[in-house]
Amino acid sequence: MKEFGRMKRILFATSLLVGATLCGGTSTAMAQQPKHQTVTINAKSMSVKQFFAEVKKQTGLNFIYSTDLAAKLPHITVNATNRPLRQVLDEVMNKVNCRYEIEGNIVTITRRIAGERVRNVSGVVSDESGEQLIGVSVCIDDSKVCTITDSKGFYTLKVPANACTLKFSYLGMSNAELRLGSGRAPLSRNIQMVTDNQLSDVVVTGYQEISKPKMTGSVTTITSAKLDERYTTNIMNNLEGRVAGLSTYNGKMTIRGTSSLYAETTPLLVVDGVPVEGNIDDLNPYDIESVNILKDAAANAIYGARASNGVIVVTTKNAKKAGKIDIDFAANLTVYEKKNVDYADNFYMTPEQQVDAEAKYWDYYFFHNDGEVADPISTTAQSISMGTQAVTPIEYAYYQRAKGEISEEELQNQLASFKKNNYAKEYADAVYKQRVMQQYNLSLRGRSDKFTNNLTINYKYDNSGLINHFANQFNAQYKGSYNVAKWLTASMTINGIYSKSKEVGYDNNSYYSDIWKQPAYMPFYNADGSVKGQHYWYDGNDYMTFGSPFEDLSSNPVDEYYNNTQVTRRQYMRYHGDLLFKIIDGLTANAQFVYETNHNTVEWNATQDSHVMRTMRNAYYYQSADGTIKNYVPTTGGLLRTTNSDGRYWTARGQLNYAKTFGKHDIMAIAGLEFRETKLTGSKALMLGYDDQLQTSSTHTIDLGTLSTMNYSPLFFGASGGFPASQFVFDPYIKEGMGVVPETHHKYASGYFNLTYTYDEKYNVFGSFRKDYADVYGLNAKFRGTPLWSVGAGWLIHNEDFMKDIKWVNFLKLRASYGVTGNIYQGATSYMTATSGELNQYTNLPYGTIESPANPNLKWEQSRTTNIGIDFGLLDNRLRGSIDYYNKVAKDVFSYRTLDPTTGFTSMFVNMASMRNRGIELQITYDWLRGASRKNWSWTTNFTMSHNSNIVTDVENPSNRASQLIERPYVKGKPSSALWSYRFAGISDQEGEKGQSLFYIEDGGKSHSATGKSISILEYSGQSEPKVIMGMDNSVRWNGFSFSILMAYYGGHMMRALAHNETFSSTWSTAIASYFLNAWTPEHPTDIPGIGRYASTTTGSETTYSNNAIHHADFLKIRNIVLGYDFPQEWFRGTGINRLSLRFQIDNPKYLWVANDVHVDPETLGLRNPSSYIFGLNISF
Question: What's the whole-model pTM score?
Fold first, then answer.
């Protein structure tokens, strides 16, 4: 908590600094107005261009004029000493027959036409989010008569009285047009411009900013305007469907497929130019200016050994407007659809169906078993007394009937009563609550000629939809810069995150927290209205008596949510400093340093009354030498287990930047050195007999040596014990709570160079080189450093002379690249590794275990990527996009290699595998309608498609048994996500195994067990990762209303779903899958394994991994639907409000189509995730 307190003090001080500098910066910017300025100019025969330059030098005003106009104007004589600026301008403009207009610090010069009929047009130009745009060019038709918008996005222009068209253009925005009819009256027309994602002029790679025409690599840019169209709690979800080649399937983010078997496969995250160790979920979605996804080697090879999986470069927002403080506030309320707990919808038998199915079996078991059951009454009696086998209410009712304790009528009455119960519904009513998530964001931004300041504060709260559960997060960031001198700019960013969550704690018997782990007909409440305790295997049952001193082990679901809790706290800080030195024209240098800390604390508290502590006390009762009953653990108090981990990371970079244009030659180059260090440490602490209120414990009374050697309880479950105390108590509850978090400490060093050359704005050549060093690989000096490089070329075809007459082609670029990038597997090292253990049970001395031998030849994984692409903009850039083909070959991929057992190891990790990802990507945007003003319709469609073929081209799979291959499915010639299955051969009707699943084995025969069989009995069932991913986003705007809908398609992959798991005949203690309604019987032979009388007495993994559980996983879904409204700006004139908007969004509505015929959602393998409804408010001042 000390760390969090310090973080709060830093952020509070930062906010005070921001307020002071914002206010100070504003007053500086607003000090001088043109009407109060004076100039001194005395010159003869001065050109108008020289006059404008001199005025700019004295006043800071910028002049906008046509070069053709300036060349035709006569030279002038000016005599002015400390005269008002406007007087001098009036005099000079009259001499040359021109007119001028001043807006802010912009002076627009146009030719005055004698007798012309003109009118004034004015308005505000903004982007999709309502942000006013500064510096938008506004021109009359194709003439040279233009102006630009001021610091408030305002423009004014005198236009002819006859009909004409105003054309608006701005960097990164699609051109807009406004058609004006004839007339003399002044007009007011506000314009909203749309972001041009495909042809955005600047790409931020992290190490540099480069114009899109000069890029030879494959990059997709998503701007804040596009991100703001829909609300997501994290950036990952907001990128889905918008970036070709990016997959977020099932929460796993990859770019252009998987390129490693065991190493990291997620893209590298870069924030404001520097890689960070934080999670992508840490990013404040309201504070992102742009996201650039670097996909090929030419784009990301500069990141070297961390770039094989692609790079996501995030740039946070910065103040844009000078002279004022911008205040933005956003609030979003998300209400989640209640979880569907209907048994039939979740593929389970209803209470009525389960009662009937179970009653049928127990009727056979007790009354019609034809001698197949030796002594059913004694068997059930033993289960009741020992507690080692579940005894359900229906079994017990039939047991009573068999003993004559109840009549047939009473039995049937009990069954009818059970059918009226609904455990899931009553559980949900008591434990689930309406899930609601709230998120609030406040941003303050301002800038002046010296300062730039940004402060963003974000708070998120999620009640998690369960009792005694929650998750909250506070995220604050300050980002600022100061122009120390003309040659030096200093920048600083401080980001602090504090989060806290509470959830149910760990328990071997977690069945009380799983709604499907009790029979559907089980009553949730006792007759007196109290919540009923539930039992499961080794927890006893409702009908046994726990004799003294043992305690009842039933689990009350509601009480356990309060008696067994886990609280997780996280404190994350990131400090980023940057110094930019302007050395000479075109040459700059910058030094950056980033320091990150990440502290996590996990506290697991099981109270005295929790199921965990009752189990622990029961397990460790023993009889002393004098015959008294004692306990090895405290008989009062609970458990507190604390795990602390601290991560500390820093990155230092020094870089030279050169950019210069010489006639037709343009050169951009960077060179630098980078150093990085990561360190993670941690510890664990355990207290038993813990009293949270008194803050006391009695851990010191425990003999850990005795407990560590006790495999079974001395007394529990019989006088000679029998309860597996080591497996169920000591190892998970005590042993795991002691010791340290293994320390990891690594250092890295890199040198890099990057050059882009452009000739005549037509031909680009690119090259980059980087060499990385890491202490992970160090025994062999040959592999300590690895060179990584890339080359690329681009041809701007639209700039060729032969293209000038092809007006419908606005932009056309052909590019190609090849390069080598790397990847590190943190789990491998060149050195021999060993782990320390507890005390040896025989010597009572500590011992260690050698985990892996030394391997001096370990090195980086490498990916060699070829990319060919076309970027285009057609039909006045209405149709724009890109097409890419890539071939990505991964070499030296980490995998297991079989060793001679005489070495002491059966296998080891080496660089021996290889993989290939090959595919195409298509990204197209089309503007069906372009509305230049609020009242016009606009409609844009964005479509993305990618097809990726993933193959393991070389690997040794040491698996020789079928079960091993299923667990480690890597085979040469197959995808890395291959699914391997046992071949289903029907249901047996033979005596002794009736109703059991059969599977084909090596000799062509059939068997109900594949244990120990070779991998030849398996068949390849497809891959689990999608081959084809498509996204389509439609956005429509009119008169302040906005509507968008995002659809996503994933296809070409398979899934396992509704596997026909065989059920033990006497274990009916959970809800039962509904497919067993069609279970095999001699009278009704099916492909569903038998249950009850015909259930298998032995089970394995064969049915779970059978090919009859394989289904197509293709699906088409609507991800979200968004309806928004921006209130007219004129409604708020004089109020200080610049923008007010409302939004309603539906996330995850019902899927449109699934390929499987069992109606399973491929992303959940069950029901779809609940829909959520989002209400949003955005207001700007």
Answer: 0.82
